[in-house]
Amino acid sequence: MDVVLPNSWATAMQSLTQLRYLALHVKQFELEWISHLHNLQTLQLKSSKRISLRGATLWEMTKLRHVNINYLFVAWEDNDEGSFEECSTSMLENMKSFRTCDICLDKMNARFWWRFPHLEELNLRVRYEPEFPLFPIPEVHTRIHSLSLEFSLVKLFNSAGWERYFVFPSNLRHLYLGGCFLTEEMVLNIARLKKLESLKLFMGFPFGRPESYCWDVTNVEFPALKYLTLHLMRIAEWKASEESFPVLEKLVIRECHYFKEIPTSFADIPTLRLIQLSNCMESLGVSAMNIKRDIEENTGCDSLLVLV
């Protein structure tokens, strides 16, 4: 059921007890209004006001598999902290994907994800700088293969040492990071993901500094990475070795206006098939064509497609 309804919709919903799929666009919403839908598997909510979600109510909807909420606030009860120690009574074992556009990573909300032990996809837009690790025990979420995190640049990372909050689940295959500056420690956290196939980086600025920076991964290896996208990254210089991206197939660079040159070592990546550039400096396109020429001269094959 996919509907747009006024505020009076809640009363009408009481007679619909067997729904499995529900998508709503309403002015306001309370989870209690649909807590009787015990067979619900997919819930998508859009509201012009912040949606307050009581954890105790959500735990009763045990068949939920996919949740997408555009503006979320989790309201915790006084005894919720203690109930984390009794996880077996409040786990949502069937939850596969969870997405929200607005959440705070404080101590309680970070532990909130412990409730979804079989989670496979997690998408979050984080409002303030984290206060607690998103995955306090990364081993809990061994099934997560796709993670998307976007942060507010205005509020981002005022304090030192924020990178320690980003130890990712080890089985990630797809990672999107928006508004997250790539410090050396952060890059190493990503490189520890030995199964990572796709990495998208968006608007990673050095916090509090207007200048661009050098992204040096010469001694870092991304062993399984096939697809790399850099969008609005303030990178002026990029250093890499042929071991940094040994199986890379596709490189996409968009609107990186300070970026002058792709590392020449990319000509030594045997799997590289596509370099795609959009709204970048002319010198970046020249470096891509030089890589294409070097590959042709070294292998005798026209295997690399360059789109500018």
TrEMBL record:
InterPro entries in the record: LRR_dom_sf (IPR032675)
Domain of life: Eukaryota
PANTHER family reported in the protein's UniProt record: LATE BLIGHT RESISTANCE PROTEIN HOMOLOG R1C-3 (PTHR15140:SF40), TUBULIN-SPECIFIC CHAPERONE E (PTHR15140)
Organism: Solanum verrucosum
Name of the protein this chain belongs to: Uncharacterized protein
